[in-house]
Amino acid sequence: MTVNIDVGTVLRGTVCDLYSNLVTRPTGAAVRTAIEQQVIEVGASVVTTIDFSQVNLLDFSCADEIVAKLLLRYASDDGLPGFLTFRGIHEGHIDPIETVLERHALALVSWHEGAAELFGYVDDDERSHWEAVRDHGPVWAESLAPILSVSEAFAANQLDRLRSRRLIMRRDDGFTVPGTVARGT
Predict the structure, then answer these.
(1) Are 102 and 95 in contact (CB under 8 A)?
(2) How far apart are the C-alpha atoms of 62 and 97, rounded to whole Å?
(3) CB 162 within 8 A of CB 126
(4) Reduced to 3 states, what is the DSSP secondary structure of residue 66?
(5) For residues 15 and 47, what is the distance between their CA atoms, to the nearest angstrom?
(6) 123 vs 43, higher pLDDT
(7) Which of 153-177 are b and which e, b meaning 16 or more Cβ less than 10 Å from the residue's Cβ?
(8) Minimal CA–CA distance to 37: which of 61, 60, 14, 64?
(9) pLDDT of residue 20
(10) Alpha carbons 169 and 166: distance in angstroms, whole number
(11) How is residue 71 annotated by DSSP?
(12) Burial environment of residue 109 by CB neighbours within 10 A (0 to 12, 13 to 18, 19 or more)
């Protein structure tokens, strides 16, 4: 199950009806709180997509309040259930988002025109394994290892690291990027 949350709609519903800029920490905190409440109300382990397409301006404090704190909340042991992806991130959003991701050693999955992208703090092995899952998934370690010319144990370790960071998810047919539509559906 996938839930889409439009940040522009949340912003207008919590701060101002005509507002499309995220430029103060209190504004970011109000939007994040409203998003968390929507996720809690769904109550199931789902893929939640946060859509920034209606947001014109995003400053560093709002990127920290919304993006980093949501990712940290999902990553905590008692955090929100499911997976978090993003959509609608444009050129003006990238610098503040990348800065807060690096500061907190976080990464995120963003969807653009039907393709998943990985932003943030990942090492080369994590990136190559994530890209292989994106390009070949759903996939298990035994089928991923020969693609990347690594041992099965190493591939399994990398998949587990990516899963624990919620950058990939495990399904019955293998690991896949959150938000990927199951084959055959």
Answers:
(1) no
(2) 9
(3) yes
(4) helix
(5) 26
(6) 123
(7) eebbebbebbeebbbbbeeeebbbb
(8) 14
(9) 62
(10) 7
(11) H
(12) buried
